Amino acid sequence: MNKDLKIFENSESEVRSYVRSFPTVFTKTKGYKMWNKEGKEYIDFFSGAGALNYGHNDDHMKEKLIEYITNDGITHSLDMASVAKATFLEKFQDVILKPRDLDYKMMFPGPTGTNTVESALKLARKVTGRTDIISFTNGFHGMTIGSLSVTGNSMKRKGAGIPLQNVVTMPYDNYVNDQDSLDYLERFLEDSGSGVAIPAAMILETVQGEGGINAASFEWLKKIEAVCKRWGILLIVDDVQAGIGRTGTFFSFEPAGIKPDIICLSKSLSGYGTPFAMTLVRPDIDKFAPGEHNGTFRGNNHAFVTAAAALDYWKDDTLENNIKIKSQKIIDFLEKMVEKYPEIKGEVRGRGFMVGVASEVDGLSNKIAAKAFELGLIMETSGPNDEVFKLFPALNIDDEGLNKGLDILEESIKSVVK
Ligand code: PMP
Predict the structure, then answer these.
(1) Which atom belonging to ligand 1 lies closest to the Cα atom of 239?
(2) Could you tell me if the CB of 109 is within 6 A of ligand 1?
(3) What is the rounded distance in angstroms from the CA atom of residue 413 to the CA atom of residue 418?
(4) Does the reported pTM lie above 0.95?
């Protein structure tokens, strides 16, 4: 064991995980590259689990942040009015919402993904006066008690004794062979004998990240929206991981042509890796009374500064085009890998820059990810049995970085399956 890792082993809780998957001490990072203490370079296809979509230490955001700090801008102010927040609110309206013909109120629920999910679930219950929530198999929404209760991962739930209280888990798209999961869902809703009360909300990811890069079809999403409308159920799209460009558009649901009632954003929203979350709420259901849902760290001003700067990348389609072109390249490459190395028994999954390969071979994806790390590529696995190796490059990665990463990936696959 690397002696620099001793401090983590001796002092940090056993719950630590990424220090185990990526056992080295990092010191420096720029764009899609990271370096450890020994100066070894890594290509980052992990992007902070989707929190660093613009790469590390982006110059434009850094410049704005340094300028703000140098001028003694407000750092902490709960939800008082600040210039940094005003700038973000205005820019988010102008660059993101208005051009997409979307109308939402912006709510800052606390710093993390789980905070936005909690606020969405609470608001849906308050607005509808109902209690139940429909969530989906293999969905992931966070680790606090409310968000964990709608998370379809029994390993994470059971240990903490979190039951599926007032939550009904339904099959995600493609989950049930030869059976449209929506027919199944509607049967439950129609059949009073099923015991399923009309829920307050449905919560879903358009592409499940932690659940194994399962991408719902646009048709399925449209039908889900229609079911929600028919039954007066609020649709919550958890875009914490799939949003902010990860699947190719700012919001992951854009190409499906749906308009959720509530949207959860976090991870890459601040652009710079600073904790930040926002819940978008349809104006007519913006029903929390003043202070009814609060938190000390609502809206970090440094995050407002970098998040506003990040929105400059959405003023034209350069970023979206880069994702489109390179996503196809990644998918073609992965298809080639699956064909060339049939030992993987793999299936390519995902959309945009949220892609992966599910291997039927027990433990193989973890072995490939571990080998990749040894060879200088950072990549994680997901899925109920860690059967998927995930490729999450920065959205602005150049050809050189992408090719380097893919070369290392092939080396790793070759070495593991030989
Ligand atoms: N929702 C989704 C879809 C996520 O992927 C995650 C985190 N992986 C969360 C919610 C929870 O976010 P956080 O870890 O910041 O609480």
Answers:
(1) 3
(2) no
(3) 8
(4) yes
